[in-house]
Amino acid sequence: MTYSHSVGGTTWRFDDLREVMAKASPARSGDLLAGVAAGSDAERVAAQMCLAAVPLKRFLEEALIPYESDEVTRLIIDSHDAAAFAPVSHLSVGDFRNWLLGEEADESSLKALAPGLTPEMVAAVSKIMRVQDLILVAQKVRVVTRFRNSIGLAGRMSTRLQPNHPTDDGAGIAASILDGLLYGNGDAVIGINPATDSTAGICELLKMLDAVISRYEIPTQACILTHVTTSIEAINRGAPLDLVFQSIAGTEAANASFGISLATLQEGYEAGLSQKRGTLGDNLMYFETGQGSALSANAHHDVDQQTCEARAYAVARRYKPLLVNTVVGFIGPEYLYNGKQIIRAGLEDHFCGKLLGVPMGCDICYTNHAEADQDDMDMLLTLLGTAGINFIMGIPGSDDVMLNYQTTSFHDALYVRQVLGLRPAPEFEEWLAKMQILRQDGNRLQLGRELPEAFRRALEKMA
Amino acid sequence: MHDRSPTTENPWQHLRQLTPARIALGRAGVSLPTDAQLDFQFAHAQARDAVHLPLDCQALAAELEKHELGCLHLRSAASDRQIYLQRPDLGRRLDEASAAKLDEHAGDGCDLALVIADGLSALAVQRHAAPMALKIAEQCQAERWSLGPVALVEQGRVAIADEIGQRLKARMVVILLGERPGLSSPDSLGLYFTWAPQVGRHDAQRNCISNIRPEGLSCNLAAHRLLYLMREASRRQLSGVQLKDEAEVPALEGEPRAGNFLLG
C-alpha cells in the first residue's frame, strides 16, 4: 500500500509503511548510511504527519518485514493480545500520542496495554514525540523484575557493577568489585564482559562471583556476558550460573549473525530456570541491544534502525528478562553520530522498551570516535533518571579498560541518587545500610567513613 | 591540614596495583574529585586528538624511503574525517584518482602488497607503522617474496586493502592502521592480513593482529606472528578463520585466576 501527505504545497509519496517509518525517523547517521532516511527536513516532517494519520491497527495488517521470512515478525504477530489492545485499537498514531500523554494512560492501564502493543506501534509513536514526551510517558510505566532483589520499583534505580579487566585477572576483577560495592553499586547485577571466550575460563569467573556474593551475603546476582551457548555449556559443567546473557537484535537475520535464534534463546532460558537459583523470582535473562546492530549485520530489510531496535524488545519480553540494556553509544558514529543523536536514541529505546513491558536499563556510553563527551552522558543520565530507568552501568571512573569505551561511573550513580532521590533496590539498600556502606535519606547520601569489617579483614590479609 | 581537605580519600588505594581500572578515586561530596576529573578529561582529549589528527604521509614516506621502500600516496572515497566517520563504505574503497594511480604502478604483480592507512588513530600509525613496515620488508626479503610499492592511504578502513591488493595483483596483502583509541591506549596499531585480496572479501577471510604498541604487543612479536600466518597462507592458499584456528596463540596471559583477596 502506498502512502502520501500534502503539506506546504507539496505532495510527498511513500511506497509503503516501512518507508513512512524510516523517513519519519528523527535524523541519525545510521539511517543515512542505510539510505532510508528522509531526503530533507521537510520530507521528514511530512512523513511524520503521514505517520500520525496511520491507524494503529494498520501495523497488524502491514508487516514491515514479511511474516513468512522472519521469525521475529511471526513472534510479534502471533503473540499479539487483541483484548489488551482494545482500549487504543481505534486510535491513529497521532492520537495514540495524545492518549499516552493524557490521564487515562497511567501505571495500571499501561501495564495492561503492553501485550496489545507491537514494537512497530511504539516505534511509530516515538517518532512523533519530543524528548519531554518520551520522558513523561515512560515515567508512568513500572516494570518490576526479581531474582534475588526487586528491580524497577518506583523511586528506585539500580546499577550493574561492571568490573571488567583486560585479562580477566581474578584479583583485578575483585579490586573493581570492592570499589563498586563501597560506592553502593551492584544491585542490578555484578556482570563481567569476559576477555576470554573459553568455557573453562567462564566457569572460573562464575565460581568466583558466586563465592563473593555468598561470602558477603550480597542480595544481588552475577552474570558473565558470554554467548548463550557458552552459558548453557557452563551449566552443563556444573558452574553456578545466575543470569543467562545474550546480545539480541530485531530481525531473524541479525540474530543469526549473533549465532542465535528464538529456539536458542528458549534453550538458554530453560537451562537458566533449571538452576532455580533465584530467591525472590525467576526473571533470569539479561539481554543487550542497540540501535544499528541489524544494519551492521546487513540484516535490516530497509527498516530504520530505531524500529529494528524496538523489535528486539519483542524478542526480549518473550523470555521474561530480569534486565534489558540498550548499549546506546557503543556501536559508533556511523550509527549515532553525536551526543544529540545518542541522547535521543537512549530515550527512545527506554520509552519503547517500557511501553512493551520490558525492564529497560541503559548503558549510557560513547566511544572516542563519536562526537560526544562526559557532558552528553550527564544529560542522558539525568534525563533517564527522570524517566524512571530501571538500571544503569557502574564502572570505575567511567573508563572500561577491557572494552575501550566510556560509560557511567560509580560516582555517576550517586550523583543521580542525590539529585533525584533515587534509591537502590530495597533488599540491596538494606544490605548497604547493614554493612555501613551507604545510607540514603531522601536526597541526602551518607557514605560510611570506615571500611566495613568484613572487607577490612580481606584488605588486611592482602597487605 | 588533611582534616580540612574537601575531598575524601579511599583507604583501598593499594588495590590500584591489581588493575588498570580507575578505582579508589576518592570523592568530593559523592562526586569525582577535581584531580581525577581532569585526569580523565586529559585522557579523553588525547584519544579524541588521535582520532582527528591528520596522517602526515610525507613524513612517513620519507622515513620509509630512507630504507628504500617506495611509497604511493592514495586517498579513500571518504573526502574528510567527518564523512569517514559516518560512511564506513566510502572508507573501504579508493577514490578514482587513487585507483588510476595504482593501476599505473601495478606492473606484473607482487607477492605482498603493504598498505598503511590512518584508520581511527593517525597517532598509532605515526608512532608504530614505520618500524612495523620495515620488519615486514625484512621478512619478505628473507623469504624471497617480492614487495609492491607501499600504499599510504588517507581516510582508509581495513577493507580498502582488498582493492589495493587486487589492483597491484598481489598474492597477499597486509594493512597496518590505527585502531579505535581507548582512554589508556590512544596509539594502538592494528594489522590485518588477507590471502588473495579482492574486493568483496569479508572479515572471516582476514587475520587480525591487534594492540601493537610498546605497552601491548611489540613489533617483533607481531612480525613473528605475521610471518607464521603468511607462511601458512602460502602453503594452504587461504587466510581467515580456517587459518586462525590452527595458528591460535593464547591471546591472554594465562587463564583467569580464581584466587583473590576477597575470597582469601
From TrEMBL, chain A:
Q: What is this protein called?
A: Ethanolamine ammonia-lyase large subunit
Which pathway does this polypeptide act in? Amine and polyamine degradation; ethanolamine degradation
Q: Does this entry carry the keyword Lyase?
A: yes
Catalytic reaction equation(s): ethanolamine = acetaldehyde + NH4(+)
Q: Which Gene3D superfamilies match?
A: Aldolase class I, ethanolamine ammonia-lyase heavy chain domain like, lyase
Q: Does the keyword Lipoprotein apply?
A: no
Q: Which Pfam families match?
A: EutB
Cofactor stoichiometry and binding remark = Binds between the large and small subunits.
Necessary cofactors: adenosylcob(III)alamin
Family to which this protein belongs: Belongs to the EutB family.
State where substrate binds. Answer: R160, L161, Q162, N193, E288, D363
Sites binding adenosylcob(III)alamin sit at: P194, Q246, S296, M402
Subunit comment: The basic unit is a heterodimer which dimerizes to form tetramers. The heterotetramers trimerize; 6 large subunits form a core ring with 6 small subunits projecting outwards.
HAMAP family on file: EutB
Check the record and name the NCBIfam families matching this protein: PRK15067.1 (NF011649)
Localisation per UniProt entry: Bacterial microcompartment
What InterPro entries does its record include?
Aldolase_TIM, EutB, EutB_dom_2_sf, EutB_N_sf
Q: What is its EC number?
A: 4.3.1.7
Role description: Catalyzes the deamination of various vicinal amino-alcohols to oxo compounds. Allows this organism to utilize ethanolamine as the sole source of nitrogen and carbon in the presence of vitamin B12.
Print the keywords alphabetically: Bacterial microcompartment, Cobalamin, Cobalt, Lyase
Its domain of life reads Bacteria
TrEMBL record, chain B:
Query: How the protein assembles, per its UniProt entry?
Result: The basic unit is a heterodimer which dimerizes to form tetramers. The heterotetramers trimerize; 6 large subunits form a core ring with 6 small subunits projecting outwards.
Segments traversing the membrane: none
> Which N-terminal stretch is annotated as signal sequence?
none
User: Which residues does adenosylcob(III)alamin bind?
Assistant: V158, E179, C208
Main subcellular location: other
Q: Which protein are we looking at?
A: Ethanolamine ammonia-lyase small subunit
Q: Which reaction does it catalyse?
A: ethanolamine = acetaldehyde + NH4(+)
Q: Write the record's keywords in alphabetical order, separated by commas.
A: Bacterial microcompartment, Cobalamin, Cobalt, Lyase
- Cofactor(s), by name: adenosylcob(III)alamin
Q: Which InterPro entries match?
A: EutC, EutC_C, EutC_N
Q: Which organism is this entry from?
A: Pseudomonas songnenensis
EC number(s) from the headed UniProt entry: 4.3.1.7
Its UniProt pathway annotation is:
Amine and polyamine degradation; ethanolamine degradation
Instruction: Quote the PANTHER family the UniProt record gives.
Output: ETHANOLAMINE AMMONIA-LYASE LIGHT CHAIN, ETHANOLAMINE AMMONIA-LYASE SMALL SUBUNIT
What is the annotated role of this protein in its UniProt record? Catalyzes the deamination of various vicinal amino-alcohols to oxo compounds. Allows this organism to utilize ethanolamine as the sole source of nitrogen and carbon in the presence of external vitamin B12.
Instruction: Report the domain of life of the source organism.
Output: Bacteria
Keyword Signal included in the entry's annotation: no
Q: Where in the cell is it found?
A: Bacterial microcompartment
